[in-house]
Fold LysR family transcriptional regulator.
Amino acid sequence: MDRIDALQTFIRVMEAGSFTQAAADLGLGQPAITKRIALLEEQFGCRLFVRTTRKLRPTAEADRVLKLAKEIVTLFESAGLPSPKRVGAPSGTLRMTVPTSFGRYFFGDIFAEYGRRYPEVRLDIRFTEQFVDLVETGTELAIRIGVLSSSSLVARRVGTVKRLLVAAPALLTRHRPPRLPNDLRQLPCVTYSRLSPKNEWSFESETGRHVVGITPSLTCDDADIMSLAALEGLGAAVLPDWCAVGHIASGKLIHLLPDYDVPSLPLHVVYPDPQWMSHRARLFRDLIIERADVFAINTPQ
C-alpha cells in the first residue's frame, strides 16, 4: 500500500460518507479502509474522521486535506498518460451523454465554461437515461449514475448522488404518514423505471437493511417528471437530492422516514481507453473533475 492508495481511499470515504460504502466501492475489506485512513492520520498528524453509532463525521482537517488529495491524485493519474495533441487549442466535435435531469440541473454552467475556454470545439450532447455504447456511437465521454457493469470502459468516480424519500402534504392528508418502511405498502408510489427491482425500495438504518415492496402509481425514467408527480400528490417518491432539497425547504415536499437512509448511487465519468483519448475529451473530463464539488448538495438530516 502506498500514499496514493491511501489518498484515493480517503477521497472515496469522503464522497461515500462511510467506511462500509467505500470498502464496497473499492472492492476492499473494511479493515483495509481503516488501515489506509490511519496511515494518512499518522502522516498528517491529525484526526480525519469522528465516528458515532450512526454517522461518520469528517473533521475540519479532513475538509482541508480533501482538496489537496484530489489535486495530488489527479496529477498522479495524469502523469502516466501519453500527451499527444497537447500543443495547440483543442478542436473538432466532442460527443458525450449526460443523464437527463442531472444534466439539466448541473451541466449548463459546465458546458458554458468549456465553450468559453475552448471555442474551437463543437459540443454534441445527448441527454439520455440509457447507457449508450460509446464505441459504437463514437461517443467520447459519458456521465453515469448508478452501479456500473463490467466493461472495457474507464470509469472515474466524481461524486455520489444522495436520494431522499419524499411526499407532498396533500398525499399525507389522504394517507397516514409512514412511520416505518413497511408502512409504504399502503401508499401509492412514484418509481424510477431503470432501477431494478422496480417494485422494491431499500433503506438503511441503525437496525440494518430494510426492503419493502411498493405499489407504483406512476413509473418513468425521468427524475423531473417524478418530482412533478410527487408535487401533485400522485405518490411518495425516492428522488435525487437536486430534485428534492429545494422543495423540502419550501414545504412543498416532506422528507419521509428521515431515520432510514435511501442508499446513495455512485456518479462516474466514463470513457474508452485513455491511450486514445482526444485532447478535447481529456480537457472536458478534467473540467468535470475540477467542478465535481458542485455535485454535492446539502441534504436535510
In short: Residues 60-79 form the longest helix (20 residues). DSSP finds ten helices and 13 strands in the chain. Residues 168 and 231 are 5 Å apart (CA to CA). The longest strand covers residues 154-167.
